[in-house]
Amino acid sequence: MKAAYDLHIHSCLSPCADNDMTPENIAAMARLKGLSVISLTDHNAGHNLEAMALAAKAQDLIFVPGIEVTTREEVHVLVYFPGLRTAIDFGDRLYGSLPDIDNRPEIFGSQIVMDVAGIQSGTLDKLLLQATPYSIDDIVDMAKAAGGGAVPAHINRDSFSILSNLGFIPPGLFACVEIADALPCPAVDASLRKIFSSDAHSLGSISEPRNYFPGFSTVKDLILYIK
Ligand SMILES: [Zn+2]
Ligand SMILES: [Zn+2]
Fold it and tell me: 13, 104, 135, 225: which could join 48 in a potential S-S bond, CB 3.0 to 4.6 Å?
């Protein structure tokens, strides 16, 4: 099976994403575009993962629960999980660790929580666009302990990336890196695997079917591929 994927998508929970990035709309757009595998990777929280899992299932998509963590070093690291419950718990831990600074929706955008019926059930108060107290090493360890895998995000971006903020990828720490597929791919150690995703914050930015996993068919396979 050759599965087209997009493993970096933000829902309306992320303040920087459009409010119409509801789980239902994301799943419908992914299906329309011909993707088979998607992940939801909101910033530092997993409150829309359950609704996204259901919406993905309704569209017959393979769903990989994910979160985009902001580390203490202000580096974005994607964490992917083998199961929904673990991902939600991880998200709760991250959200709980954020500094007590409220979101200002008029400046940063809304942080909308969707319930499993596809209805807005509330908003998150604390601003999700803050650094957690966890270091890159902490997040790698926490991802492993949760049975998942950590991947440094959009390493070819000049902000919030491991290359922009640290200047290098610590040897031996990661098996896989993420490349923002709208930008040129940098030269990286050939031993590192690569995934290419959109980092979509709007429906139209969700990937066209251009990135494929060779022989990939389950979430477990993906976790093995990246960790
Ligand atoms: Zn990011
Ligand atoms: Zn992102």
Answer: 13
Cα of 68 to ligand 1 centre, how many Å? 7
Q: Tell me the whole-structure pTM to 2 decimals.
A: 0.97
C-alpha of residue 112 to centroid of ligand 1, in Å: 18
CA of 28 to the centre of ligand 1 (A): 23
Residue 68 CA, ligand 2 centroid: distance in Å: 6
Q: What is the CATH number of the domain that holds 50?
A: 3.20.20.140
Range of the domain at 195: 2-226
Number of domains observed in the structure of the chain:
1
Question: How confident is the model over 165-198, as pLDDT tens digits?
Answer: 999 999 999 999 999 988 888 888 889 999 999 9
| Residues having C-beta closer than 5 Å to ion ligand 2 | 68, 199
Q: Which ligand is nearest to the CA of 165?
A: 1
How far does the centroid of ligand 2 lie from the alpha carbon of residue 155, in Å?
12
Q: Which ligand is nearest to the CA of 200?
A: 2
